[in-house]
Amino acid sequence: MKGFAMLRIGEVGWIEKEKPSPGPYDAIIKPLAVAPCTSDIHTVFEGGIGERHNMILGHEAVGEVVEVGEKVEDFKPGDRVVVPAITPDWRTLEAQQGNHQHSGGMLAGWKFSNIKDGVFAEYFHVNDADMNLALLPEEIPLESAVMIPDMVTTGFHGAELADIKLGDTVAVLGIGPVGLMAVAGAKLRGAGRIIVVGSRPVCVDAAKFYGATDIVNYKNGDIVDQILDLTDGKGVDATIIAGGPAKIVTTAVKITKPGGAVSNINYFGEGENLPIPRAEWGCGMAHKTIKGGLCPGGRFRMEKLVELVKHDRIDPGKMATHVFKGLDKVEEALLLMKDKPRDLIKPVVVIE
């Protein structure tokens, strides 16, 4: 089979590999739609997780089951499925402790395009199919469905980590697709005011669609000053970091009020340290909680998110600004994520 791979840091290309085979609990999937992610850009062009050689990229996919192991009970060839970006080993102590994203080690639940070949191929392997796949209803368009495995679950996790309560004032730093889903998640959790930071018109319009009440543009002045002005100097109850370089952590701490929460769902691909400002963190005693988390995966999570899309609680398909046809378009779509033209939110490649 062919797949689109990271050949080494800074270089990608098409390669040939053997079609994978399932273990007794596993499944082989043929992708119906895939989407490149900014994480792929960090991995390839920044070396965010270190060197990888001839590793097929991609971790966002919906597909059709083509083969299952003899122990798989709930899925069969022909089923259309959502494949989470995070496919943990569920028979691990970490999973039992509630840390399934880190089953087998830190970030080890993130297997596709990290530990093993990803989804940008004619076929790909899914471990523990009964626990890591979810059925895809026919009525959900592929452009919406392919947002569920990563964009939706990651953005919503930002809102969960921030522990947003009814009526809270929330800031979302970065309104790419993950940030947009953080806005949608904050709204669903009952945020009153949602202040977003972004400048591209296509993303600003989408942020308003998903629930943003205020727009802050860095071109109009310092972000911290603008948000403090909007909140009468008090700051926000919760801040979700959904993009930006390391210094965005400083901004987040500065705009969050004492007792508030900073939630990070951003992949920092460079540098050794993240900066926490001493004074604005109350010399370490401001009761500002800082959490960062890899998005939840697995079947249960995907089934819950499918319900939200199926019943029109969210419409993630609005983010699919560039839709390509055919697996051979993956490279073009990936490079769009690298270059980020002003009319881009998210590219999707439909294969069926």
What is the CATH T-level topology of the largest domain?
Answer: Quinone Oxidoreductase, Chain A, domain 1
Write down the domain tally. 2
Gap from first CA to last CA? 16 Å
Instruction: Provide the CATH top-level class of the largest domain.
Output: Alpha Beta
Strand content: 15-25%
Nearest-integer average pLDDT: 97
User: How many strand units?
Assistant: 16
Question: Helix fraction?
Answer: 25-40%
- Decide which structural class fits the backbone: alpha/beta
CATH architecture of the largest domain: Alpha-Beta Complex
Biggest sheet features: 7 strands, mixed
What's the shape?
Answer: globular
Q: What is the N-to-C order of secondary-structure elements (H for helix, E for strand)?
A: EEEHEEEHEHEHHEHEHEHEHEEHEHE
Computed over alpha carbons, the radius of gyration is 20 Å
Folded structure, characterized:
- The protein is α/β, with parallel strands linked by helices and 352 residues long.
- It folds into two domains: 2-151 and 295-350, Alpha-Beta Complex (Quinone Oxidoreductase, Chain A, domain 1); 155-292, Rossmann fold (3-Layer(aba) Sandwich), CATH 3.40.50.
- It is 27% helix and 24% strand.
- The protein has eleven helices and 16 strands.
- It has helices at 38-45, 93-96, 129-132, 142-145, 148-161, 177-188, 201-210, 223-230, 248-255, 299-310, 330-339, and strands at residues 2-8, 11-16, 27-34, 55-56, 61-68, 80-83, 124-126, 134-135, 169-173, 193-197, 214-216, 236-241, 256-264, 289-292, 320-325, 346-350.
- Strands 3, 5, 6, 7, 8, 15 and 16 form a seven-stranded mixed beta sheet that branches.
- α9 links the parallel β12 (236-241) and β13 (256-264).
- α6 (177-188) runs parallel beside α7 (201-210).
- It is globular, with a radius of gyration of 20 Å.
- The mean pLDDT is 97.
